[in-house]
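Board notes (copied after class):
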Amino acid sequence: PHVTQEVIRSGFTSPNSEGKTQDDLLQTFGFRGVEFGNWVTQSERQQFVDAAYDAFQDLTQLLGMPPMFASLSGKLGLAYGSRGKGLSKAAAHFEPDNWVLHMTKESGPGSLAHEFGHALDCWVADHLWGKSSWCPPLCQWGSPVVRPSRSHLSI
């Protein structure tokens, strides 16, 4: 991530999180893959991997879920600075057709949990109704809201 000031970590402790590799992300959380853009330097790649590792540790611990929940049991992939043209004001986005969380190079850091929420919405819809193509948006304005029983979900 492009950081102009010191970042002070206040989440759960993650021993030895510095120097993590893409393989650590894949093995610990089960992501399908990690993609970097051509303009992302090796130093920025390392910063992203370390920050993503910590963020997913925090997210899964906070939710009381196993690490594989971060990838929705291997369904998600990660991309950093590789799937945009830099013209959008979006800091990040979730691609439901490809099941990829993408963070932009300049503005993406800090967006990971938000984009994970979009992926989780689609994952739930996929498991309840088999309609991941229904995402996004999950609801059209004025549509009735369906509230299914939680007994249909299994993680």
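Comment from the instructor: Residues 42-63 form the longest helix (22 residues). The helical segments are 22-29, 42-63, 112-129.
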